[in-house]
Every structure is written in structure tokens, then in C-alpha cells.
Amino acid sequence: MQVLDFTVRSNEALNDQNHLIKVAPANSEVLPEIRPGQFVQILVDNSPHVFLRRPISVNFVDREKNELWLLIQRIGEGTEKICGLPAGGTMNLIYPLGNSFSLPDRKGKFLLIGGGVGTAPLLFLGKKIKQNGMESEFLLGGRSGKDILQRADFERYGTLYCTTEDGSLGEKGFVTHHSVLKEKKYDFIYTCGPKPMMLAVAKYARDHGIECEASLENLMACGFGACLCCIEKTIRGNVCACTEGPVFNINQLTWLD
Amino acid sequence: MARLEVHIGNLKLKNPVMTASGTFGYGTEYTDFIDLGRLGGIFVKGTTLEPRQGNNYPRMAETPSGMLNSVGLQNKGVNYFVEHLYPVIKEYDTHMIVNVSGSTVEDYVACAEKLADLDKMPAIELNISCPNVKEGGMAFGTSCQSAAQVTREVRKAFPKTLIVKLSPNVTDITEIARAVEDEGADAVSLVNTFLGMAIDVESRTPKLSTITGGLSGPCIKPIAIRMVWEVFHSVKIPLIGMGGICNWQDAIEFILAGATAVQVGTYNFIDPAASVKIVDGINDYLDRHHLASVNDLVGKMIVK
Lengths: 257, 304
Prior knowledge:
The complex is a heterodimer of chains A (257) and B (304).
Chain A: E1 2-13, E2 18-25, E3 39-42, E4 54-62, E5 67-73, H1 77-83, E6 90-97, E7 110-115, H2 120-131, E8 136-142, H3 151-155, E9 158-164, E10 171-172, H4 180-183, E11 188-192, H5 195-207, E12 211-215, E13 231-234, E14 237-240, E15 247-249
Parallel strand pairs in A: 7-8, 7-11, 8-9, 9-10, 11-12
Antiparallel strand pairs in A: 1-2, 1-6, 2-5, 3-4, 3-6, 4-5, 12-15, 13-14
Chain B: E1 6-8, E2 11-13, E3 17-19, E4 41-47, E5 60-63, E6 66-69, H1 78-89, E7 95-100, H2 105-116, E8 123-127, H3 144-157, E9 161-165, H4 173-182, E10 187-190, E11 194-197, E12 199-200, E13 205-206, E14 212-216, H5 221-232, E15 239-241, H6 248-257, E16 261-264, H7 274-288
Parallel strand pairs in B: 3-4, 3-16, 4-7, 7-8, 8-9, 9-10, 10-15, 15-16
Antiparallel strand pairs in B: 1-2, 5-6, 6-14, 11-14, 12-13
Helix pairs in contact in B: 2-3, 3-4, 5-6, 6-7
């Protein structure tokens, strides 16, 4: 873990709500090892009401350019401020934080299920799975086609299936209704997105005996295990989602009890 | 930097900057960010006789210039601390001070007795001001009688430096400070969090599982400074000031109001290196103002 200033290399609006911000260490420090599922804590500068940092998952690491990609949804004063950062601007991060999705040595079929901005960590995860010599399939959901972000990037690492609530892209409905779940059999499901979606995915995985990990978005203050605010109730009691997560095997969670 | 040295009871601190309980874990959480040896002291997480799971999620809500929490003293209990945490943290080159909490006077005493036996545990901070537990905690700190009673009993069991952490959720904090001074407290630390609440207007539900919680951060700083100033003029024992300290200017402000030492709390979450930056800032301030010792500033607000 470290605190470091980054320079914004680019800031692109992907739709009316989401920005893809690419940052690189301000003094060209080489990025440390970063694992898929880990996150950063972004300092929000010059915003009178915003006090805490904003936890944002790592969307992608571009080693060649020494760049970190962050996919950020504008939902409040803090993220509004961050999405307003121009290229050349400075962003202070505490990183890398949290655990990661496990990348089993076993061969198998991976399905990565994401919803909304929760698709963010799945891109980097898909790349790592491909690097390990395996193929991922992605199942991404959103309200409409414009909400399913970075489609071309995902397609570089595996087959992409989509669902939209309005039917404007892929199959109409929620991710857990997609026909691929009936037609194919997977060994591992990794998921990140809104809690109701992850609950439905976890239930599907358990019912079908598929190993499943979920990345949680609990409210956080520090992000490194000091404040004990972001706790998740697990079979081992309350644990910090920031240090023992954000990725949990669903067998550890009490969601389905 | 001998001129930064201050004394709290029998404790000699290398500088007046410490970190507040509940915001700094056991110090281990911060070793990636700072050299813990540069701190005057570390107040570790509130510790109780029995393990506690704390309150349900959500336990935190951000508020303008601050945050509400209702962690509720989640900790593994004093025995776990003595067996597993103390052996690690006793090696740190700074004072490690345990914040002690409980539901009954007997809990506090039993916990303090176990800590009194530890060689490298020079002091405890008696937490009679936690707003987030159903029994005990703040209840002890909001009446002179109960504050005096718990201080008196712990004083008998704990011969080393005894610091009592005061609640700001009282009509007159000076009365409580005097009550614990009379029972033998070596110092008081103030203030703990202010009781507050926040409501999500769309769902019309409380933002905390416990409805109310403790407010901390820069939003409470002016009230905390006022309370330090009031208590400074009411007791003879030294004060450890806290409440929204983010930088060296804030720390000096507390010292001028009457604090001998300070604790950095919530801001550790935003800048994990804030505490050591404050040590450097105070040192530079002494240089610029040609002061021989930080002690020369304690309570030295100039009123014209």
C-alpha cells in the first residue's frame, strides 16, 4: 500500500454517467503488482462537503504505458468532482488495496457476470485469465445498450453476452435470465455489480454447484482496515470488506442463509 | 527534537502528536505508510473484557466535513489483545496505549488489571464516552457520579498513567473533568465523538443501522477547541485534545487552547501520513516563532 500522486492521462465520458479515467504515476514511478479485484482510494480535492476518499476498483492495468484505468460513475458530489478532472490534472491515490479474485490453476470455464459500473474489475480479470491460458466469457447487464461499457475491450478477452432491461442490446431482462446460463455449464463464476444482481448470481451458482466469488461495494471510510466501518457479516463473523475483501467466495457470506 | 517532548502523567512523549483510538487500528495497519516511531504515542482500538462483534452494517455515513460511525467497539477482547497483539506492538518505538471500554464498572476494572501487568503498557485511556454501545460506554461519561465511580475503581486497579476520555455529549464538560481529576485521573483526553444522525431522504431510512452514531472530523473541531479551552481553565491535570485535527495548524490551535498533547483521528483515513506531517509542522512552527519548547504554547492563546 502506498499514497501516490497520479497524473490524469485522459478522461473520456463513455455515456451520460460514466467516465473512463486513465492515470499514471506523476513522477513515472513504476506501478507495483496489482491484482484483479483490487481497488484504489481517490482523494477528492476542493469539494467542500466531501471528506472521505472514494473507493474505486481497478478497471485495467496497462503495463506498457504504466497506466491505471478507473471506471467511475457520477453519482454524487465526490464522483462528480473526480469525473471533472482534466487531462494533466492530479489525482492522489492510496493503492493497491484489498484482496483479489482468485485465479485457480485448475483449468475450467469462467463466466464473469457484471452489472452497470460493476463490470469495471471484470475487464482486468478477463485479461489475467487469458494470460493464464484460459478463456473467459462475459455476461454483462445494464438498463439499455449505452449502459454496457467497454464492449470492444471485453471482446478482446472472450465472448461477450449482454442483457438489457429495455432489450436494446442482447437479450431482454436481467443477467440471470440470459439463455447462456441454461445452455452452458461453467466451473467458475465471478461477479460484481448491484447487490440484488449479485444475490441472484450467487443463488444460481449455489443451485448449480458452481464456485462463485463476488466483489462487494460496502461503504468505506479508510479502505485499509483501520476504521472497521465496511464490515461484511460472514460465517467467521464481521470482517472488513476492504482488507478481507472486497472479493469473497459466496460460501463465506451469509447472503443466502 | 527534545523541545517537542511533553509529559502526560508519568509518560514522557517524544512529541505531542498521537493517534486516536478507533482510527489507527493497532498501528500495524499503518506501517506501510509511516514510521510509527515518529509518533508520540498510539491509542489502540477500544478493547473490552469480552470479544465484541460490533454493530450491524451500515456503520458509517459521510457528512459535510466529517463522518458518522457506529462501529460499536468491535474487538477480540482483552485476552486476545494480551496474547496476540501486545507481543507484536510492544516492539514499536512509541507508547502504545490501550483504550479500555466496558458495560459495567467490573468490566473496566478487570480489563485494566490485565493491562496493568504488561511491561510496555505505560498507560490506559478509559473510554467513558463511546456513543455506540447500548450499555456502558457513554453512559459512564455523562454523569459526574458514574464518571467518578468508574475512575475511582480503575484507579485502584491500575497504578500507571490513567487517562480518561471525555464525552462532549454533556451540558458542562468541566464538571465531568473535575470529577475524574478528583478521583485520581492523571490526564483527560477530549473529545470523543458527538452524537448525531443522518437520514436517506429517498428511502426515508436512517443511514446507520443504529440510527444514531458518533460524529467526527473537521466539522466538530471548533466545538472541541472550545471544550478544551473550558476544561483547561477548570482542572490542573494535562489535557490531550482531539476533534477534527487534519494538519499542524489544527494541532497548534488545540495546544493554544490548553492541550498538552493531541490525537489525530478521522483524518488518518484520508491521509495515513497526516500524523507525522503534523509533527514536522509543529517543529517548523517552533522554529519560526523562536520557541524553546512546545510546552510554552500550552494554553497560551493571546486574548487582547
